[in-house]
Write a structure and sequence with these properties.
This protein has helices spanning about 5-15, 55-60, 75-90, 105-115, 135-160, 160-175, 180-190, 195-210, 240-250, 265, 270-280; strands spanning about 15-20, 25-30, 35-40, 65-70, 95-100, 120-125, 225-230, 255. Helix 2 (about 55-60) links the parallel strand 3 (about 35-40) and strand 4 (about 65-70). An 8-stranded mixed β-sheet has the order 1-2-4-3-5-6-7-8, with helices on both faces. It is built from 11 helices and 8 strands.
């Protein structure tokens, strides 16, 4: 079975479920076995959570797993945290491990701050953050992220999203050891739309405008946060902000893994191993 066929099989065997929240349709998947629950928030750049279907399939053997699709309307981070809380509460889920990668890790931080009683632990990979403890370099990184967001609209007049997607696919093609794996990346990247980009940029802007996390926000998670980082060169902070993220947490566990966000689509084992060890 090719990687693309595995992806299609995952979608077919893990159907979307829906709930209404204040008239807004919320789509999610809930699957797996075990007493522990992982809420996977893995959206970042042009890859949505479902891109990491091999990782999710591995987790579902030992844990219950939930994924949520980003609501289609332009919303605030606070609203998104409320949506997640509503879905968990309506399903009578009391606590979860938050698994957040890239921008998804930012969502995890906002949710943990607002609804601490629902968070058993947090695993963050290559994650954007903003705190009241940031050094000058970290502040500069954030300023560059904000500048990039403000320039997106003008940039798209010169270089449409379709051109960016084609360039990324070409880059991935050159890096793949098995050319047959390209099909799944093409499908995943073509799913990403201009509307998805607008929603994502609006939420990141909201995060960096209205949130400055403090140490007390996450003190309840002492020794219960795993911070992972790899070889990613993320345009939205990523590994540049690892030290900043660690400073605002209380005794986090930091681990480097031999991976990046694209390689984890094909081989998620480096991350899976660390997550399972952490939860146990």
């Amino acid at each position: 079975m090719t990687l693309f066929e595995m992806y299609q099989s995952f979608l077919n065997t893990h159907p979307i479920q829906k709930k209404l929240y204040n008239g807004q349709e919320i789509k999610y998947r809930l699957f797996g076995h075990g007493n522990q629950m992982i809420l996977a928030l893995l959206s970042g750049s042009m890859l949505k959570t479902n891109a990491y279907f091999k990782m999710l399939s591995s987790f579902e053997v030992e844990y219950q797993v939930m994924t949520l699709e980003m609501p289609s309307e332009l919303i605030k981070m606070d609203h998104l945290a409320d949506v997640i809380h509503y879905v968990l509460k309506s399903l009578e889920i009391d606590q979860v491990y938050l698994l957040g990668a890239s921008f998804g890790g930012s969502i995890a931080q906002v949710f943990a701050k607002k609804y601490p009683s629902f968070v058993q632990g947090m695993i963050l990979y290559n994650t954007l953050t903003q705190t009241n403890l940031m050094n000058e370099h970290s502040k500069w990184v954030i300023s560059q992220v904000l500048e990039a967001i403000h320039q997106i609209k003008e940039l798209r007049k010169l270089m449409p999203l379709s051109a960016i997607k084609d360039a990324l696919i070409n880059q991935i093609s050159e890096a793949l050891s098995n050319p047959r794996d390209l099909d799944v990346f093409e499908a995943l990247i073509h799913e990403y739309t201009e509307h998805d980009e607008k929603v994502q940029m609006a939420l990141i802007l909201d995060l960096l405008t209205n949130y400055h996390f403090k140490k007390e926000d996450f003190s309840f998670l002492k020794q219960r946060v795993l911070v992972l980082y790899g070889h990613d060169d993320d345009p939205f902070g990523g590994t540049e902000l690892i030290e900043t993220l660690a400073d605002v947490l209380t005794e986090p566990i930091l681990k480097f893994i031999e991976a990046d966000k694209l390689s984890l689509v094909i081989d998620p084992n480096p991350l899976i191993k660390e997550v399972k060890t952490f939860i146990k």
